[in-house]
């Protein structure tokens, strides 16, 4: 396949209505995050990308990427990879609980589909070992012919990427235990090797037989001598490190943000691939006009001239969960919806969150959220087709029977507006039910009201639509936006597994600044767009 410089290439450049400009505030991402790493027989690094259901091969010197297994293909949510004795690529598919095999001809087959949280994978003397990154996970040897697994250890607290050391012992980290263990490949009693780390999520070995482990919580790359326990911090990159691999004597690590970093020694590093956004999902602007970006396991503030600044991530104190929808509510706080089915108020500066609804009975696939004029927090529950409101601990259903609601906004008169991605319309909610405001859309997702108009991201049509609040007129502000699935691709849903409950779906959010700037989360390419009306006649734009 062709070498690429970006993860997404649209069919056409973005087209704008007269008088509008477009600026990419955040550059497009090269990858959909970066998870498992393995050096291939060709000397390239093979990168598994859970969120994008993609595997890419990276040339470490040129930075060129080749897509090995593309989004929409047979492999779904690949988390870790290794090469078998015959050169086939073995893949753990985290959300689907599978281990698949991809041959040299590109064809894939499923070896096992009953391993929930399948994650760490490694070969040793032709034998295949896999573990499950979940509470109560197992470490096992798989039969290459598809026979029943042989369980070495069970009831593990989220084991992850592993490898056999020069002593012939299988070493594996546990995120839940914050330690590293070893066991003989033939079984026996596990032995703890190191504890009180920075949340280790991968173990490999250098040429001197020392453990090298990425620490997802602290962002450290740690070297441990298993013979005497001596520890050395090789470098500190950033929280969210995921895996590592050696190419000859060179060490490379991956991170949730898609950054691939070479560890040079003496604490120095080199970014082989830059970091980027994995999705992004929702956007919000606070009362001071500051833009915030929800990217699932990360949440950022955007500052012109500085760029993205992380306010919180999966391992931050008080993290509310995988964030899909976000709305600034004042005082540095945000109303958020999470993939674990909760509506929460989160204040990142103090590392605290309060669950407003969904604590004892989680919601089914929450997406957009908005703060109402009366202090209520309103959210779209895609799974049940509801729109719910919570205020002072009281939960109210504002609408039900909707077709995959996703985006929520309020008109100036306090009317609640909701996008129905399944029905291709935006409705207004009142005591008498849902009334169509804008129809004929393909897959509307994020919506926002600004300057007396409603802006809709139609992810299916890849268009930003501006509609009057009475629904009488509309026009296309931008076409061929990098939102939704790539052209011709039908992504398979990510089933989800705690703490990344699912199914996960794309959500192109939109928000507006006090100056009328419209911000769009370009989830297909992993960027954030700023669209501005420079005074042109919007009526000259093509009808939407």
TrEMBL record:
Protein name: Gluconolaconase
InterPro entries (alphabetical): 6-blade_b-propeller_TolB-like, SGL, Vgb
One Pfam family hit: SGL
SMP-30/Gluconolactonase/LRE-like region domain mapped to chain residues: 33-246
């Amino acid at each position: 396949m062709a070498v690429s410089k970006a993860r997404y290439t649209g069919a056409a450049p973005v087209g704008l209505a007269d008088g509008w400009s477009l600026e990419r505030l955040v550059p497009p991402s090269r990858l959909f995050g970066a998870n498992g790493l393995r050096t291939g027989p060709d000397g390239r690094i093979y990168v598994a990308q859970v969120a994008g259901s993609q595997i890419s091969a990276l040339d470490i010197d040129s930075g060129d990427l080749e897509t090995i297994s593309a989004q929409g293909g047979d492999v779904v949510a690949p988390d870790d990879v290794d090469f078998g004795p015959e050169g086939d690529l073995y893949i753990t598919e985290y959300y689907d609980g599978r281990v698949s095999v991809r041959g040299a001809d590109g064809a894939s087959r499923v070896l096992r589909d009953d391993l929930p949280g399948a994650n760490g994978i490694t070969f040793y003397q032709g034998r295949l070992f896999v573990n499950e990154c979940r509470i109560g996970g197992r470490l096992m040897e798989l039969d290459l012919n598809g026979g029943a697994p042989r369980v070495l250890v069970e009831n593990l607290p989220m084991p992850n990427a592993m490898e056999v050391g020069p002593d012939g012992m299988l070493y594996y980290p546990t995120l839940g235990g914050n330690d590293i263990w070893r066991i003989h490949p033939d079984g026996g009693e596990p032995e703890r090797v190191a504890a009180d780390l920075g949340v280790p999520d991968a173990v490999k070995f250098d040429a001197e037989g020392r453990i090298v482990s990425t620490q997802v919580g602290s962002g450290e790359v740690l070297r441990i001598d298993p013979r005497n326990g001596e520890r050395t911090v090789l470098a500190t990159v950033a929280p969210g490190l995921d895996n590592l691999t050696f190419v000859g004597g060179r060490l490379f690590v991956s991170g949730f943000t898609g950054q691939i970093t070479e560890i040079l020694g003496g604490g120095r590093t080199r970014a082989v691939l830059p970091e980027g956004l994995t999705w992004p999902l929702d956007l919000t602007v606070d009362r001071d006009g500051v833009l915030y970006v929800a990217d699932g396991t990360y949440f950022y503030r955007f500052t012109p001239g500085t760029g993205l600044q992380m306010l919180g991530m999966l391992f931050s104190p008080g993290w509310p969960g995988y964030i899909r929808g976000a709305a600034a509510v004042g005082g540095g706080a945000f109303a958020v919806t999470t993939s674990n089915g909760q509506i929460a108020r989160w204040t990142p500066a103090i590392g605290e969150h309060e669950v407003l609804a969904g604590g004892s009975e989680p919601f089914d696939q929450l997406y957009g959220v908005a703060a109402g004029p009366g202090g209520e927090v309103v959210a779209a529950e895609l799974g049940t087709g509801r729109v719910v409101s919570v205020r002072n601990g009281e939960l109210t259903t504002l609408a039900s029977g909707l077709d995959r609601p996703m985006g929520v906004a309020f008109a100036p008169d306090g009317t609640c507006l909701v996008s129905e991605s399944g029905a291709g319309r935006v409705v207004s909610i009142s005591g008498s039910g849902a009334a169509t405001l804008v129809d004929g859309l393909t897959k509307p997702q994020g919506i926002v009201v600004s300057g007396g108009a409603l802006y809709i991201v139609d992810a299916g049509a890849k268009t930003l639509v501006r509609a009057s609040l009475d629904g009488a007129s509309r026009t296309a502000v931008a076409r061929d936006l990098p939102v939704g699935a790539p052209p011709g691709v039908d992504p398979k849903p990510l089933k989800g597994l705690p703490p990344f409950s699912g199914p996960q779906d794309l959500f192109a959010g939109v928000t507006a600044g006090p100056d009328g700037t419209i911000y769009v989360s370009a989830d297909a390419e992993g960027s954030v767009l700023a669209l501005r009306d420079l005074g042109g006649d919007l009526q000259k734009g093509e009808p939407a």
